[in-house]
């Protein structure tokens, strides 16, 4: 069943991209928080 394998591959790519986006957002939020702390805003 080639169709199912292709679908699973696409689903895997979507999950990887989603996870990458979430991790990137978390990293950016952390860096902004650190920058604000260094500037004495918080």
Percent of residues in helices: over 70%
**Can you write the helix and strand succession as a string?**
H
Biggest beta sheet summary: none
Roughly what is the average pLDDT, rounded to an integer?
93
Tell how many strands the DSSP assignment holds: 0
Secondary structural class: mainly alpha
Strand fraction equals: under 5%
Spans where pLDDT lies below 50 across 5 or more residues: none
- Coarse morphology: rod-shaped
How far apart are the first and last residues' alpha carbons, in Å? 57 Å
Radius of gyration: 18 Å
Short description:
Keywords: Membrane, Transmembrane, Transmembrane helix. With 42 residues, the chain is mainly alpha-helical.
Describe this structure in words.
It contains 1 helix and no strands. The protein is mainly α. 0% of the residues are buried. The model has no long low-confidence stretch (mean pLDDT 93).
List the main descriptive attributes of the protein structure presented here.
42 residues, mainly alpha, 0% strand, DUF2474, DUF2474 domain-containing protein
Question: How are the elements arranged and paired?
Answer:
Elements: H1 2-38
């Amino acid at each position: 069943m080639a169709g199912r394998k292709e679908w699973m591959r696409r689903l895997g790519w979507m999950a990887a991209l989603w996870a990458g986006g979430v991790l990137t957002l978390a990293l950016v939020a952390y860096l902004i928080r650190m920058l604000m702390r260094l500037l004495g805003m918080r």
